[in-house]
Write a structure and sequence with these properties.
The protein is mainly beta. The protein has one helix and 50 strands.
Length: 594
């Protein structure tokens, strides 16, 4: 048996080498009759027949199995070409149209073989083109780029034909981009078609462009940004529009001059300061654009910067700023309520700013200037600028609203925090107007809960005074509110005018918002006799001191922690009679038979 197997394997090896040169022979050869042995033939099943384009890469694959071994070789034959793979798949392409038979033969590790065939149909497809740019909106005469991509079954397309608003292709490009612009507003279309090396035209794709009539734009550029007095300055305007524009110039905040086409302007300034140069452009459709630049013109003196001249400030705490002139050794700051200022706010500084934290008050006007000195202590005075400070910012009360009535007698006073007077607050609360009683002298909160010291059915007045850290202050307007009416004391039992079943009883009443009670019990209709002087209970047991067949009257007076009080109505009850008819055995007499 071993000898037979050796002979068989030798035969298979020879056949394998023979068939490697021509795999078609594998289909015609049965290398070994394996009946009666433990060997089994492998199996191979190729994919379904398929259709591809010329030069398209196609992946051919099959399902090969060997029940008692493994597949070691796959032989592929198509177009008289043989490919060998270790796996049952093959990437290939076809250069000519037609129908091709593909044969695959698999060999397992025992040298046993199996084959299968499939058909591949190769067609010549036209290229496909698509514009990848997204529809857009542009201005008249604004150039833009359209991008497309095209793919063909043979090669990527080498030429693109472009058309504007029609199918007459007048532009040809070798790449996939096309740059153009539109002179007229409206909605326009860009068409693209590609052609491959087989002279096949692709589909047509389109690109939509909305062209707008846009306003002109203008920008300014200066040769320098800082210069001296009487130095020459050149400014250039760059205008962009769909058509021709007209320019108007304004120098140093003066009005716009006459129309001109000049885009370059030369000028000089005879005084120091921050100079503003403006330009305005006007197109044929009446659309306007404008822009401006600032130029610093220096002299020996400083250029005042902030606060701006004639400005109104909302706080007396601020900073004076200036731009150095040519004299920069030191500066003296004059700040006063008279013009020209004579009060020296700071005698000497090398800074270009001065923080004002005193002297300036609300509702006043002030004047200031800076005196610059050079190294030889020669002064140069700036112009005088002025500013004013507005009235003190109001302290705004929020709640309770003015002249409102509370649901009880506790109040929550609320006010807005002030941006300037924000250090602490003092609250006055009183029954007189204006209030004089200080409820709290110093708090940083913006609310105050008042849950004591107020009485029912009263009008109260309150105000808030806000302070700065320097103890500057402002007081709000006075508001009023009323507390609720005195709540009643409600009696519960015994019911009014009831006749008791016994001589004792329990008096009871509602607590409400009260904390202690006084009970009056008497035989007169307006009771004055004090049964209990003070109790926190809401009932009183009366078991002594009552007489039979008597009418009694009772009343409760209630108090709270603020000594507010309320009195209940007077109720009455009657005690039972002293002669009560017995209902059980009242005597015992022995029975003697008579």
């Amino acid at each position: 048996m071993k000898k037979t197997l050796l002979i068989a394997f030798a035969f298979i090896t020879i056949l394998f080498l023979y068939c490697s040169k021509d795999p078609e022979k594998i289909n015609r050869v049965n290398p070994l009759d394996i009946s009666g042995t433990n060997y089994s033939l492998p199996t191979i099943e190729l994919m379904r027949d398929t259709t591809v384009g010329i030069k398209d890469t196609v992946k051919l694959h099959g399902n090969a199995l060997d029940s008692n071994g493994r597949i070691v070789k796959c032989f592929w034959k198509s177009r008289s070409q043989i490919d060998t793979t270790t796996l049952c798949s093959l990437k290939t392409s076809f250069k000519e149209i037609g129908i091709y038979q593909v044969i695959v033969t698999v060999v397992d590790n025992d040298g046993l073989m199996a084959s299968d065939t499939m058909s591949v149909t190769v067609n010549l497809y036209p290229p496909k083109v698509s514009i990848i740019s997204i529809d857009t909106t542009v201005g008249m005469n604004d150039s833009f780029v359209v991008r497309a991509t095209a793919k063909d079954t043979s090669i990527y397309s080498t030429k693109y034909f472009w058309s504007i608003d029609s199918l007459r292709y007048s532009k040809v490009t070798n790449d996939s981009t096309f740059k153009t612009a539109f002179a007229l507003p409206g909605t326009h279309k860009v068409f693209c078609v590609a052609i491959d090396d087989d002279s096949n035209f692709s589909n047509i794709d389109t690109f939509n462009v909305t062209v707008e009539r846009r306003a002109p734009t203008v920008s300014l550029k200066s040769s320098i940004s800082t210069l001296g007095v009487n130095d020459t300055l050149t400014v250039t305007a760059s205008a962009k529009d769909d058509g021709v524009v007209t320019l108007f110039w304004s120098i140093d905040s003066a009005g716009y001059g006459v129309a001109t086409s000049d885009s370059v302007r030369g000028t000089r300034f005879s005084s120091a300061g921050i100079k503003v140069i403006k330009v305005k452009v006007l197109d044929a459709d009446g659309n306007i654009d404008s822009t401006s630049i600032q130029i610093t013109v220096k002299a020996n003196e400083a250029i005042l910067q902030a606060p701006s001249n004639n400005s109104v400030l909302n706080t007396p705490l601020f900073t004076l700023n200036w731009i150095p002139g040519f004299y920069t050794s030191r500066y003296q700051i004059l700040l006063d309520t008279v013009n020209p200022p004579v009060r020296v706010a700071q005698a000497s500084t090398t800074d270009t700013s001065y923080t004002v934290n005193s002297f300036v008050n609300f509702s006043k006007s002030y004047y200031w200037r800076v005196v610059s000195y050079n190294a030889s202590n020669v002064p140069a005075e700036s112009p005088v600028w002025n500013f004013s400070v507005s009235a003190k910012p109001a302290i705004v009360l929020v709640s309770p609203s003015d002249a409102s009535t509370l649901s009880g007698k506790n109040a929550n006073l609320v006010w807005n925090k002030n941006s300037y007077f924000n250090h602490h607050y003092s609250i006055k609360l009183d029954t007189v107007n204006p209030p004089v009683n200080v409820k709290i002298a110093n708090t940083t909160d913006s609310s105050l809960v008042v849950n004591s010291g107020l009485n029912f059915d009263k009008v109260y007045y309150w105000s808030v005074t806000a302070y700065t850290s320097a103890n500057d202050s402002n007081t709000s307007v006075v508001r009023s509110f009323s507390t609720a009416a005195v709540p009643p004391v409600n009696l519960i039992a015994p019911a009014n005018n009831v006749t008791l079943a016994a001589k004792s009883t329990t008096l009871s009443w509602n607590r409400g918002s009260w904390t202690r009670f006084k009970i009056l019990l008497d035989t007169i209709a307006v009771p004055v006799r004090v049964e209990t002087l003070s109790t926190t209970d809401t009932q009183k047991v009366v078991s002594a001191g009552l007489a039979y067949s008597k009418k009694y009257y009772w009343q409760v007076r209630a108090y709270d922690a603020d000594n507010d009080s309320s009195v209940s109505p007077v109720w009455g009850f009657t005690t039972p009679d002293s002669q009560v008819t017995p209902t059980g055995l009242i005597a015992y007499y022995p029975f003697n038979g008579n």
